[in-house]
Structure formats: C-alpha cells, structure tokens
Write a structure and sequence with these properties.
Its EC number is 1.4.1.1. This protein is of the alpha/beta class. The chain has helices at 11-20, 48-56, 75-80, 89-95, 107-110, 130-138, 157-177, 207-219, 230-239, 251-260, 281-285, 335-356, 359-365, 367-372, 383-389, 396-401, and strands at residues 30-33, 60-64, 84-86, 98-100, 118-121, 142-145, 199-203, 222-226, 245-247, 263-266, 292-295, 316-319, 322-325, 373-376, 379-380. Helix content is 38%, strand content 14%.
Length: 404
C-alpha cells in the first residue's frame, strides 16, 4: 500500500470507516454538535469522516455553524459528509436528542438542555457544581463523562489519548521556551556533536510521563523520570529500553535533580485526586535561571508549589527566573489532532447506542459507557460525586435492572 505522507492524518479515520461501515442501526440517533464556548476550547468531538460513518449507519447529525473552525474543519466538509448545518445553538439543541461536545455545558447552555437529552462530554470535575448536577437530574438527562468512560480492560480510552497528546506536547512546548527569544537559556534539547544535551526531569511515571519521555528521547535529551511507584518506573524502563534514568521521588533525589534540570515536566497525579505537590518553592528557586517548567496536571492543582493556572492566550509567567507553563488544556492547542483522537474513540460508542436499540439497552451491555454514566433517570450514579456534593446516589446497574 502506497501512503502519501501528506495524507497520513486521514489513515486513522479511513481505517475506522472500513471497520465500522455496515447496515443501518436498530434506532436512528439525532446527534447535535454545538460550537464550543468554553475559554480556549478549540476541539470538536467528531470529524467530517466520523459524521460520514454515522450517516452511513442511519443516524442524523446536526452541527452548529462554525463549530469545527478552530480545528480547521469547515462547514462545507461537514455538509458534504451528510451533516445538517444549524445556524443557531437553540435550533441545534431542539433538533437533537443527543448532545456530543468536548467541554461540559456552560451556564448559558444549561437552559438549552431538554428533558431526556443524552449528554456526552467531559465533566471537568474540578469546576463542576451542584447546580449543574441538579439541572441534569431535574431534566432526566442521561449524562456520560469522558473521564469516567472505562472499558473492561480498565483503561480510560479518552483520558489516555489526551494524556498521550499532553505528554508529547509538553516537551515540544518546553523546547520552544528554552529558546532565548522566549526568555530561556538559549539551548537545544538534543545538543549537537561535542555539546551535551539538555536535562529533562519528568515527575510521575504514568501515561503523560511516558509520552513526554518518548518525545524528549526523540529530541536527544537526557531524561530522568521520578516516581514513588517502583512498578511504574520498572515498566517505563523496560518500555523505553532503559534509555532513561529513574529515581524515587524523595526530597534528596528531587532537590538534586532539579538543580541540574533544564526542563521539568510535572506529570505526578492520582486519578480522581488532587495532584501531590512534590516540588517546593525552594527547589524551584535553586534551579538554573532560564529553565522551563511545564506543569501538565495544573487542572488537578499542579504538582509544583510555584504553579498557577495560565491560558493559551497568556501561557507563561516567570517565578524565581524560571519560566512556568501551566495551561490546563494542552491538547486544545493541537485541536485538529485531538479531534481525530476523540472521534476515533467516540464514533464506535455512538454506533453501539444505535445498534443496541437505545441508551438503556446499550448501558446494559456496554461496560465503558455504563462506567461513564454519572446521571441516569433522575439519579446521580457516582459515589465520588455523591461524596463531593453530599447528594444521594444509586448504582446504575440497579437503575437499569429495575427498569425505572
């Protein structure tokens, strides 16, 4: 098979189309794609190719005018794929029975949600409110959160893909800010013949850290990975053919490593919890002037004491003469790539709902979507949310079995 390198972006969706194209689903879904209104959110959940697959399976797709612009997908591309262009968000919500978006609805969008809508989006646990939960419950909305979707293999497919992008991008960002024109030391990550490479210290050994390490090694940097989970460190050493240096994240090793670091990638986190703060203010103050910190877990509070959230429009600040990049939504800056990643995970779930004959039937058989559901039939279904908001909850398996 001859592959045009200029068309490799399309390979994934073409493979997806071949695998998923089949006869029409049991029920036809009316799927709405509103334009994202959250600050700095540039992604959209479905590509035109994904829309084409859904149309081929008998579903209807409505997309708000301009919804794909920030990811460089035009209205014409969506129309050619079979989507109907909605010229207002109110029209879109009224025509749709299922809303698929990246960020959770904003307060302005709450009133657009209608009784029995299905909502598929991220929840952004750190920013969600009890009012939002009350609205979903009162309107009998089935709400499925990207960060809760977990398959039988215990993987979180959407979270994993975004972490892969974040890890790779974090090193790309750091390399940029090491340049003198952006306030850095004026060094290359990989060095050249006779000149040693930069030192990259990665905090944590999860998915984000793995992809950060892969990218940093690709640049030719010297890479240290630090974590307190020896099993994770061992896995990463083996996965990267022992080309990295690992150490436990204790005070002694952290203090020493940061003194030599040109780049620090903060990726220490625990699912569903606040990120542990491993790096103190003093450690940052002792780093080399012009070094770069990229805290990828700032949406969970950050793992570096001097971190505070920034935005894509104003991404960096200087503290102790160290450049800090702390944007919570790194994948949004590569919106087209991130949209393809989202699309390739989401389209099979949408087809599964249609093939099963509806959302209730699908939740009974589809482990990932069942795990992803946090509001169903006027009940909160996640104990973690119940604890946060002091609200009652019921297990979703019981709600489905009782046919409420």
């Amino acid at each position: 098979m001859d592959i045009n390198p200029l068309e490799t972006e399309q390979i994934g969706i073409k493979t997806l189309e071949k695998r998923l194209m089949k006869s029409k689903s049991k029920v036809s879904l009316k799927i709405g794609l509103p334009k994202e209104v959250s600050h700095d959110e540039r992604r959209i959940s479905l590509t035109p190719g994904g829309v084409s697959v859904l149309k081929g399976n008998g579903h209807e797709v409505f997309i708000e005018k301009g919804a794909g612009d920030e990811a460089n997908f035009t209205d014409q591309e969506y129309a050619d794929a079979g989507a109907e262009i909605a010229y207002g968000v109110t029209e879109l919500y009224k025509k749709s029975e299922m809303i698929v978006k990246v960020a959770p609805p904003s307060e302005e969008e709450y009133e657009l949600l209608e009784k029995n809508h299905i909502l598929l989006s991220a929840l952004h646990l750190g920013n969600t409110t009890e009012d939002f939960m009350d609205i979903l419950i009162s309107k009998c909305i089935t709400a499925i959160g990207y960060e809760f979707i977990q398959g039988e293999d215990k993987e979180f497919p959407i979270v994993r893909m975004m972490h892969e992008i974040t890890g790779s991008m974090s090193v790309q960002i750091a390399a940029h800010y090491l340049e003198k024109s952006d306030g850095g030391q004026g060094i290359m990550l990989g060095g050249i013949s006779g000149i040693p490479p930069a030192t990259v210290v990665i905090l944590g050994a999860g998915i984000t850290a793995e992809y950060a390490a892969r990218t940093a090694l690709g640049y030719g940097a010297q890479v240290f990975v630090m974590d307190n989970d020896l099993a994770r460190l061992r896995h990463l050493e083996n996965a990267l053919d022992r080309r990295i240096i690992t150490a436990t994240a204790n005070y002694q090793y952290l203090s020493s490593a940061l003194q030599y670091a040109d780049v620090v990638i903060g990726a220490a986190m625990f699912e569903g919890e606040r990120a542990p703060v491993w790096v103190t203010d003093t450690m940052v103050a002792n780093m080399k002037s012009g070094s770069v910190i990229v805290d990828t877990v700032i949406d969970q509070g950050g793992c570096i004491a001097t971190s505070r959230a920034t935005t894509h429009s104003n991404p960096v600040y200087n503290k102790h003469d160290i450049i800090h990049y702390c944007v919570p939504n790194i994948p949004s800056n590569v919106a087209r790539t991130a949209t393809y990643a989202l699309n390739n995970v989401i389209v099979p779930y949408l087809l599964a709902i249609g093939d099963a004959g509806g959302i209730r039937e699908c939740l009974w058989s589809n482990t990932a979507l069942r795990n992803g559901t946090y509001v169903y039939k006027k009940h909160l279904t996640k104990k973690s949310l119940s604890n946060i908001f002091d609200m009652p909850y019921r297990e979703i398996e019981m709600l489905i079995a009782s046919q409420i």
